[in-house]
Write a structure and sequence with these properties.
Largest sheet: 2 strands, antiparallel
Strand content: under 5%
Radius of gyration: 20 Å
Structural class: mainly alpha
Number of helices: 15
Helix content: 55-70%
Length: 407
């Protein structure tokens, strides 16, 4: 199976090779795209809540409320995150109670885990747990989760990337400070982690052309999940010293300068494979980081690079996968982020196009084997959990944030 569909001219979609996924003129996808935004968002909200019920049933109800995989990425915490998003949209207290129950089970399941990040570790359990407890008015439970969070200690071999490393812990600190209150996690604790990340990046970079560099499993990755884009993105959520800001900006300029002629980005240092257009590797995740850089530094170079990378996602990002890590759902967030940054309604249209395609076609294409539903088909990062989250974010597109990446 080829790895992507190609949008020729929206709203017409034609798949790579011989697979037709739509035709112009009167089909249901065209009809969806022609809806006024309010009508489309109502349609997507209804679809999202139905998907949420399916995800809850498959990942929570049918398991007897026992958790094996507690993580946000592929496990039960991802279900809790989705349910919390549904609560934020609908204010249904039953969702808040369900979310709290799932997090409690994740807390129990993660007690022997050494992982410390938001997406794949205990920091996510405690941070989300504390925020949900705040919304529930349970101050003692909120405090208990915060105390557990503050007791997290790093193993000596902890990497720096987002999914399993220091950046993933640092993101959880920013999440708590946003949702609970400033200085929930102290500046001193955050500063200690930032110092470690910056100093390590400088050491590995040495006298190379890139000011900061990091490795994960022996590879110098560039993308959001394991590499430079993800680490830099999280650093920009913190208060950087002037010299640190220059290291960050210099690293971004190095990345931009060394992109492929196509405008896409290598998955790792020295890679010549211009194939991946995913959040985890390639233009989508890097676009989100460049959007953040444009917001933080007000630099036109970063703005233009974000716009250029967004064009790559538009032309090559209609993947034959559904998820947010490496699928259409994640790539749609690129356009929502660019819309938030620029106010240009063209990006909202592009987000509508990708989202409408999923709403209209994903279930059928997955059942036909023409689209990959994810190895964990109900999960937040690989499966329809992420698609449901995207649909809910489309209700208020200007407030949309890529889950566990954009604060």
């Amino acid at each position: 199976m080829a790895d992507r569909f190609f949008p020729n001219e929206m709203p017409t979609f034609v798949a790579e090779s011989t697979v037709s996924t739509g035709a112009a003129g009167g089909d249901s996808l065209t009809n969806l795209l022609s809806l006024p935004y309010k009508s489309l968002s109502d349609h997507l909200k209804s679809a999202a809540l139905a998907l949420k019920e399916t995800v809850v049933r498959e990942t929570w109800g049918l398991s007897g409320k026992r958790v094996q995989d507690y993580t946000l990425y592929t496990g039960a915490l991802g279900t809790a995150y989705l349910v919390f998003k549904a609560y934020q949209v609908t204010k249904n207290d039953n969702d808040l109670k369900l979310c709290s129950d799932i997090v409690k089970a994740c807390d129990s399941a993660s007690k022997d885990s050494g992982r410390v990040t938001f997406i794949c570790g205990r920091a996510g359990v405690y941070a989300l747990g504390a925020v949900i407890a705040k919304h529930s008015g349970d101050t003692s439970l909120q405090q208990r989760y915060l105390e557990k969070f503050k007791e997290i200690r790093f193993p000596s071999d902890l990497p720096h990337e987002l999914l399993y490393g220091r950046a993933g812990f640092l993101w959880a600190c920013s999440f708590l400070n946003k949702h609970i209150g400033k200085d929930t996690i102290s500046t001193a604790r955050i500063r200690a982690v930032v110092d470690e990340i910056i100093e390590s990046g400088k050491r590995l970079a040495g006298k190379g052309r890139c000011p900061l560099m990091y490795e994960w499993h022996g590879k110098k990755y560039w993308g959001a999940a394991h590499g430079l884009a993800g680490i830099i993105h999280v650093l920009m959520d913190t208060e950087l010293k002037p010299d640190e800001a220059e290291y960050v900006k210099g690293t971004l300029r190095y990345i931009i300068k060394n992109r492929f002629p196509s405008g896409n980005y290598p998955s790792s240092e020295g890679s010549e494979s211009d194939r991946l257009v995913h959040w985890c590797h390639g233009a989508p995740g890097i676009t989100l980081t460049l959007v953040k850089a444009a917001e933080v530094f007000g630099d036109k170079e970063f703005l233009q690079a974000a716009l250029d990378a967004g064009e790559v996602v538009w032309k090559r990002g209609l993947l034959k996968r559904v998820g947010i890590c490496h699928g259409i759902s994640g790539n749609a967030y690129v356009f929502l982020s660019l819309y938030r940054l620029t106010g240009n309604v063209e990006y909202l249209y592009r987000a509508k196009a990708f989202t409408s395609f999923l709403s209209d076609r994903a279930e059928k294409l997955i059942s036909q084997g023409k689209m990959h539903g994810g190895d964990r088909p109900y999960s937040l990062f690989e499966g329809i959990g992420g698609m449901a989250h995207l649909f809910l974010d489309m209700v208020k597109a200007s407030e949309a944030r890529f889950p566990a990446y954009e604060i």
